[in-house]
Structure to design on (433 residues):
């Protein structure tokens, strides 16, 4: 023992301050979480510490510190950076709010700094201490610790509390959204079979996810579920998501009743699903759903209105965002060889729908928005070409690259190509465009 003490004192062995705390008969969870070695000891699978943390009452406290955190408006800090996946800004009331996907995780150093600032008795119930507790709890539940994950899944009520941010009627606080989405994003792939079972037992799980899609991290969470299809234990999750009408639910969010942020998020989710279907070898169920005639009709109807052939080109925001997944779907039908025998009725569903809405595409290409002026280095453009027209042109080009004779003939007959050339000629420096 004396030799051990000498080595510890001289720095020869790492010494954790958690052990003396665990020796105390009346130690509390808060005391342990305030210790600077808490997270590291959990990640190192300290058995005594994990046995204490995973007691039902303590794990319930850990989850509640995330789901029930409330930050007064006057204590709100600067908004965190935008998420890389969805492009939405999280108006979180706390610094270093984590999100999922490509965003930067909170480091142990940041956690330790926050802990030190909130460790005094006077800070027992302040906004800073509540943020700190939520932050520590989030990092604990996200860390690669099978004991904690297993304990979480043993108590289904805790999973329900974490998932409540998408099932509840009232919009959740931004900080709760970010933390809960990050935790679920981390734990779902570790227990795929249990996750699917939990989601199937949750009423309206998929519609609820879609309803909150514009919130930070929710789209990442949906795509995390989709990617589980590539794992042996995750086979069948895409079939279930398709059976739950995930694709129609996303398309419906592109409609006029949604906010611009929701339309952007829904279109991006659809685009990601199309990309997954085109690149994954385990996406047969998703491919079948995307190629369904009813889905193609629903998406084009949502983008171009109820009577596409009449020239009704739909809502600008809906079109601008929704054209990306539609164009990607048409591009998936591209052919290197020229096909002269197939008739229009034999074409893939999305190619047929694009031909049907050529009048609406033409109408949008020639429309002029009054008062729209773009100042460029080459002078003023009124109206400018704009992102919407560019994406309409991309859709027509994608249809032409299917190399079907009937498609090329129909595009020429509709005067869409001539319309594009006339529009191009109206711009100075058109050769650069």
């Amino acid at each position: 023992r004396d030799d051990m003490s000498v080595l510890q004192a001289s720095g020869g062995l790492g010494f954790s301050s958690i052990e003396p705390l665990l020796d105390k008969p009346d130690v509390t969870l808060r005391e342990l979480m305030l210790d600077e070695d808490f997270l590291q000891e959990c990640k190192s699978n300290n058995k005594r510490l994990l046995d204490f943390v995973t007691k039902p009452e303590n794990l319930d406290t850990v989850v509640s510190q995330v789901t029930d955190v409330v930050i007064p408006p006057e204590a709100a800090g600067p908004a965190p950076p935008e998420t890389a996946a969805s492009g939405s800004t999280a108006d979180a009331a706390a610094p270093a709010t984590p999100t999922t996907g490509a965003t930067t995780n909170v480091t142990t150093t940041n956690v330790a700094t926050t802990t030190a600032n909130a460790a005094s008795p006077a800070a027992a119930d302040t906004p800073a201490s509540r943020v700190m507790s939520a932050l520590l709890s989030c990092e604990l539940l996200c860390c690669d610790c099978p004991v904690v994950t297993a304990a979480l899944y043993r108590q289904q009520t805790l999973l329900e509390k974490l998932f409540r941010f998408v099932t509840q009627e009232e919009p959740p606080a931004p900080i709760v959204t970010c933390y809960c989405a990050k935790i679920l994003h981390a734990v779902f792939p570790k227990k795929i079979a249990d996750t699917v079972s939990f989601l199937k037992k949750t009423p309206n799980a998929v519609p609820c996810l879609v309803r909150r899609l514009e919130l930070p991290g929710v789209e990442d969470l949906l795509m995390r579920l989709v990617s589980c299809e590539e794992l042996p234990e995750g086979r069948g999750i895409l079939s279930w998501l398709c059976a739950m009408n995930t694709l129609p639910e996303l398309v419906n969010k592109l409609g006029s009743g949604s906010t611009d942020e929701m339309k952007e998020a829904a279109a991006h989710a659809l685009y990601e699903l199309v990309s997954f279907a085109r690149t994954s070898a385990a996406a047969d169920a998703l491919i079948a759903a995307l190629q369904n005639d009813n889905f193609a009709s629903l998406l084009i109807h949502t983008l171009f209105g109820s009577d596409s052939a009449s020239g009704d080109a739909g809502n600008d925001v809906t079109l601008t965002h929704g054209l990306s997944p539609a164009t990607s779907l048409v591009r998936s039908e591209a052919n290197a060889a020229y096909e002269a025998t197939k008739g229009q009725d034999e074409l893939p569903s999305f190619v047929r729908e694009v031909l049907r809405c050529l009048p609406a595409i033409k109408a949008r290409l020639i429309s002029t928005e009054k008062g729209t002026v773009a100042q460029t280095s080459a002078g003023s453009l009124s109206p400018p070409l704009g992102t919407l027209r560019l994406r309409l042109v991309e859709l027509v080009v994608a249809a032409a690259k299917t190399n079907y004779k009937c498609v090329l003939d129909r595009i020429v007959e509709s005067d869409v190509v001539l319309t594009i050339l006339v529009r191009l000629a109206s711009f100075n420096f058109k050769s650069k465009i």
